[in-house]
Every structure is written in C-alpha cells, then in structure tokens.
Design a protein that fits this description.
By secondary structure, the chain is mainly alpha-helical. Helix content is 75%, strand content 0%. Helix 1 (3-24) runs antiparallel to helix 4 and helix 4 (66-91) packs across helix 7 (186-215).
Length: 341
C-alpha cells in the first residue's frame, strides 16, 4: 500500500465527514426574547466555559451537530480500519517489498546532532524553560494579570519559544542527514501510514481510560485547548488553536521530542537496543505529561511510541510531523464544525 493509496483513502474519509454537515445539520431556530436574554446568556456562557468539560458533554455536543459527529466517526474509524490493514501487512513482512507500509530499518543509527547533555538542555529549554520566561515577558507587556487564563497569550508564547529550537534542530539534521532520509512522496506515505497505525492504539486506549475513570467515580475531562475551542466567547481563538495545532505544534514537538530528545537520551543510555526502548518510553511519558490531561495521556503515550518507532526505522522527521499534524487536524475539524454549526 503506497503513499497514493493511503492519501486517497484519507482524503475520501475527510470528504465523507465534510459533506455530512450540510446533509444532516438542523436549521437554526429563533427563540422569542433572544435579545432580552443576551446579557444573561453571555454571563452563563462564561460560567460554563470555566467548568471542566467532560467527554460525555463533548459527545452530547457532537450529537447535536451531525456534521461533526459523522466527520469524527468516519475519519477516526476509517483511519483505524486502514491502520489494522497496515498492521497485518507489516506483520506479514510486507515492509520488505518496495513501496510497502514501512521501509526496512536503516543499517546505521541516526547521527548525533549535539552531545547528549546539550541536546537535553536544548529540549528542556524549548519545551519547558523558554515558555515560562517568555510568558512573564508577554504577561507584563500585555498587562495580563492571570496569564494562565489567557489562552491566546499561551499560544503565542508556545509558538515563539519552541519554533527557534525546532528550526535549529531541523536545519542541523538536514545538513547531517539530508541525503539519507525518505523524500516526497515517500515521507508522506510513511506519515499517513504511521497515523493510521497509531489510531489503532490511540482510540481504544482513550475509550478505556474514560471507562476506567468513570468506574472510579471520576469525571473524564477533555483537554483545556479542546474546551477552549468549543466554549471560548471569541471566534478568533478556535481558529488560532486550529492553526497552532496543525501547523506549529506538530513541527515543534516532533523536532524537540523525537528529533532531539529521543536520540540524546538513547545515546546517554548506551546506544543499544535496550537503550532505544528505554529512551522511547521515557520521552513518550514526558510527551504525554506536557499535555496536562489524564484522560488523553494513555492515547498520547501510544501515539508518541508509534512516532518514535517510525522515526527510529526511517530517520524521517518529515514523516512523523505529517502523522502528528494529521492526528491534530482530524481531531480539531469536528470541534470547529460543532462550534460553528
């Protein structure tokens, strides 16, 4: 199954989800006295936005927007089906055939961009320290008293602080490995295949986590950015979140975690097979933890492991960025459909 087949399948899934909106969407109904209730409605909306939204509430919201519901259903379960097929092909050693789901492993490990200590410091700076320092500057410059409550400012800070480190890593990698990594459209096919395979693990783990949390008597809240996309009073914030989640976050996070931190920790632990496994697990735990969501953490951990495996076998940063961006895109589109419908 080559890149064109996977890409056409995913495009068909996206198209089916998009056309569901005009077919199933209900006509808006005018309520009497709407203008009189506007002020009270805005105050109530602010209170609702401050409450953590559970996955049950998110499901109810999707059920009220048939376009969002069908897009999520068709895209996620379509990708899951493709992923199952690809897993069977990989199990049958189909990756040894030219144009297969995943190429054969590289005979030599990826070159080290920086020494392990420098790599860890750069990764920590790009992912943790710089956002904190820049957030103080942004809060002072914009006069924001409660910075953590201003999602737009946080998005600006994360973009400004992570992109420089990601660009340094990417440029240095290109200079050192430019002739050894897969090119387009092979990288595209690998990335889309990796996303579909990751979906096989992400979707069941997320459902299982929600069930376990509910059995323990705890609510399963969605991620903060997901809730902001739905409940924010500003229509510009969901667009900013979507652009950040699809265009900036995948590139920055993959460059820092897979392109920089994973090889550094692997070399630090001895650059053996066991070191690669330990590094993949440790970096994936950190990757899941920074998203600050107990509900999404197991699925994010599985996603990170799959992306690390693909990176280890292909040495392609572009492929895992594509996989990450596709995951975020198919997660954000139903949220936007639900909000703006």
């Amino acid at each position: 199954m080559n890149a064109r087949v996977v890409l056409l399948a995913l495009l068909g899934i996206v198209a089916l989800g998009l056309v569901a909106e005009p077919v199933f969407a209900d006509e808006p109904k005018e309520e009497p006295g709407l203008e009189a209730k506007k002020g009270a409605g805005e105050e109530e909306a602010k209170k609702d936005a401050a409450k953590p939204m559970s996955f049950d509430e998110l499901d109810d919201l999707f059920e009220g927007s048939q376009g969002a519901f069908w897009f999520m259903l068709v895209s996620r379960y379509g990708a899951l089906l493709i992923g199952l097929i690809l897993l069977v092909l990989v199990y049958l050693r189909y990756d040894k055939i030219k144009g297969g789901a995943l190429p054969a492993p590289k005979p030599t490990p990826p070159p080290l961009l920086f020494d392990p200590a420098t790599s860890v410091l750069l990764a920590a700076g790009g992912a943790f320290l710089l956002p904190f320092l820049i957030s103080v500057i942004v809060a002072q410059a914009m006069g924001i008293k409660e910075f953590t409550a201003n999602t737009m400012a946080q998005i600006i800070v994360m973009g400004v602080s992570t992109l420089p480190v990601a660009m340094i890593v990417t440029l240095r990698r290109y200079r050192m490995t430019g002739d050894t990594t897969p090119r387009w459209p092979k990288a595209l096919g690998i990335g889309l295949s990796a996303f579909c395979i990751a979906t096989v693990f992400v979707v069941p783990l997320t459902f299982l986590t929600i069930i376990v949390m509910e059995k323990m008597g705890q609510s399963a809240p969605v991620q903060e950015l997901v809730q902001e996309t739905i409940t924010s009073p500003s229509d510009s914030l969901p667009i900013a979140i979507a652009l950040y989640g699809v265009l900036i976050a995948p590139f920055a996070e993959e460059a820092i975690f897979r392109g920089l931190l994973y090889p550094a920790v692997k070399r630090w632990l001895g650059d053996t097979r066991q070191a690669a496994i330990s590094s993949a697990v440790l970096v994936s735990i950190v990757f899941a933890a920074i998203h600050l969501s107990w509900t999404a953490a197991p699925g994010l951990f599985a996603l990170a492991l799959v992306l690390t495996y693909v990176y280890e076998r292909t040495n392609s940063l572009a492929a895992i960025v594509i996989a990450h961006a596709t995951n975020n895109f198919l997660s954000l589109v139903p949220l936007l459909l639900a909000r703006f419908s």
